[in-house]
């Protein structure tokens, strides 16, 4: 690689690396804190709302993660010299694929909520992985593959930003469809949102890691399929585990037995995924920088 080109890429990656992870962390922290506050508020005070007001409060939660993402991640992009202009397009197309393919496949074709929730834990993990996990991860990967590759990826952090956009768009449609159809209470709606956001962000981050290793590193051909499998498994494990903390499957509105435990599991899963992906991401970037520096020294540059 040309030295000047590599230097330009190094400067671009140095600039883009931290802001992307800061924006992602801000998105996760603010979203989870808000949804947890709603659950705590209802658990501690047990307010009684009119049915119509309860429905309006639940529906008002749906656009919250999208609006937050627009302010935290999208608007700052247009203050830099080389913004990621396809973020909104990736989010919109991801929402459309969830609407046209993802939800119909999971609910109408596989009918997971009719046979999986009462199975054993291992069967639920395997079932959700092979159905909802593969469908969700597969559709998000196709959106990323055809909208950002190859010209959309300039540096590693681009893949993280676009994966966040895809996850936000995909989860936004699932949240709207679920809450509109089931009419849950305000706190249950908050748990549903937290669940969908956790599942989609976790799988999206592992997909981003697989794309990064395949596109920017001399990785083995199986790296991308392995990350795809991990992305699908995060959906399976989370879906199977959270169901055990609720009185019924996630598709059934109603009272929860231990909503705070379910929230703790979701938040823990989300931050654990963020930590794992960030560690692998930074480790791969550091290794490549050290290899490039060693190569330059060996050539006397």
Any descriptors?
about 0% strand
At a glance:
This protein is mainly alpha-helical and 301 residues long.
Can you put this structure into words, describing what you see?
The chain has helices at 3-45, 51-61, 64-74, 87-110, 112-115, 121-148, 156-182, 186-216, 223-243, 259-298. By secondary structure, the chain is mostly helical. It has one domain (20-247, 256-295). Helix 1 (3-45) packs antiparallel against helix 10, helix 6 packs across helix 7 (156-182) and helix 9 runs antiparallel to helix 10 (259-298).
The total of helices stands at: 10
DSSP E strands, number? 0
Cα-atom radius of gyration: 20 Å
Largest sheet: none
Provide the succession of SSEs. Answer: HHHHHHHHHH
Mean pLDDT: 86
Tell me the strand percentage band. under 5%
